[in-house]
Design a protein that fits this description.
Two copies of one chain form a homodimer. With 171 residues, chain A is α+β, with helices and mostly antiparallel strands. Chain A has a domain of 90 residues: Orthogonal Bundle (Arc Repressor Mutant, subunit A), CATH 1.10.10. Chain A is flat. The structure holds a DNA duplex (25 and 25 nucleotides).
Chain lengths: 171, 171
DNA sequence: TTGATTGCAAAGCATTTGCATGCTA
DNA sequence: TAGCATGCAAATGCTTTGCAATCAA
C-alpha cells in the first residue's frame, strides 16, 4: 500500500467525479486510456499514448485518445505542454508540483525545474502591468552537458532525438 | 533625418549583406516584403504580412512571404514568436532589446516586458543543471486590467481578439 | 429509450515541398 | 547562361469535425 497506489485510486476518483459532474459517461476506452496515462512517466504526445493504448486494445482510435486527453486536461489530471516541435505533449498534473522545462535542442532531453524566485518575479511583473496572472509558461532552450561534450568531440551524432526542436522559437 | 530613417537604411543593408554572404539573390519580392515588414509595428503572422504585401502587389504568393520571413529571421531582422494560438508571429529583431511577452487570454493584447532579475535567474538555473543556455522563452498569460473590469461588468463581450489563445497551454 | 461516445473518413489549418517557369548575377 | 527564386498546387503533420453505428445510464 504505497503512496503511489493511493494516488492512483484518487486520480480515478477525480476522473469519475468530473465525468459525473459534466454529465458524461464512463466507457471502457476512457478507463483504459486513463490507466495507461497514469502508468507513464514521460511527457507524451497523443500519438505516443495512442500506440501504448493500441498495444492493449487495437480497436481504440486516434480520435478517442485525442478527445480523452482533452478530457483528462479538463479534469485537472493532465496538463498540455509544448516544446516547440509543433506537437502537444501531456504530463501528469494532479497533485504535481508546478514546474517549468529546460529542453536540450540537440537530444531533446527535458529537465523539469522549479524556481520560486522566478515565480515570485513573474507575479510582480504581472502586478506591475495590472494583469491578473492565470498561467505562465517558460522554456529554457540550450545544450545539455552531454551534448556539449559530444559537440566538442564530433559534430555528427547519429542518435535521433525523441523531441526535435525544429526552429528555436523564443517568446 | 531621424534615427528611425537611419535604422531603416541599416536594416536593408543587413539584409543585402546576408543575401550576398549566403549566395542568394536580390528580388523585387524580397525587397517589397522587407519594406512592408519594416513599416509594421505589431507582431504579425505570415498571413497578416501576406495581405499587406498583397495590397501593393497581388502577384506575390503566400509561399514567398513564408520563405522571406524565414530569411529575415536567418538574417537577424525578424524573430519568430508564438502566443499559443497555433500560429507563428514575427516581430522586429534587429537592434531590439530582448523582451518577453505577457498575453491577455481574453482580448489578445500583448505586453512586452523585460526583467533583468528573471534573466539572471534563468542563467543560474541553466548553469545549475549543466545546460549551456542558447535561448529562452517565457509567456505570462492572464487578464489585462480592462478585461478584468469587463468581466466584472458583463460576461459576454462581443469583440473578437486578434490573437485568440484557444487552449491555455503552460509550459 | 435517450443521448453521449466511438471510430472512420474527411475536413481544417498552418506550413512545407515539388516542379515548371521566371529572373538575377 | 547557370541556378536561385517564384508561385501554383499538392503534400504534410497535427488536430478537429461530421456522421452513422454503438453503448452506457
Amino acid at each position: 500500500m504505497t503512496g503511489k497506489e493511493n494516488n492512483f485510486q484518487t486520480e480515478r476518483e477525480v476522473f469519475s467525479e468530473h465525468i459525473q459532474k459534466a454529465g458524461l459517461r464512463h466507457t471502457a476506452q476512457r478507463d483504459l486510456i486513463l490507466d495507461i496515462f497514469l502508468q507513464t512517466d514521460e511527457h507524451l504526445s497523443s500519438e505516443d499514448l495512442y500506440w501504448l493504448v493500441h498495444k492493449q486494445d487495437s480497436s481504440v482510435g486516434h480520435t478517442t485518445v485525442y478527445r480523452t486527453l482533452k478530457l483528462l486536461t479538463d479534469a485537472g489530471l493532465a496538463r498540455e505542454v509544448r516544446f516547440g516541435d509543433g506537437k502537444t505533449y501531456y504530463e501528469h498534473h494532479y497533485n504535481q508540483e508546478h514546474h517549468d522545462h529546460m529542453i536540450c535542442t540537440e537530444c531533446g532531453r527535458v529537465v523539469e525545474f522549479f524556481s520560486p524566485e522566478i515565480e515570485a518575479l513573474q507575479d510582480s511583473v504581472a502586478a506591475e502591468y495590472g494583469f491578473k496572472l492565470t498561467h505562465h509558461s517558460m522554456r529554457i532552450l540550450g545544450l545539455c552537458e552531454d551534448c556539449q561534450k559530444k559537440d566538442a568531440e564530433t559534430s555528427a551524432s547519429g542518435a535521433q532525438p525523441r523531441i526535435r526542436v525544429k526552429s528555436v522559437v523564443v517568446t
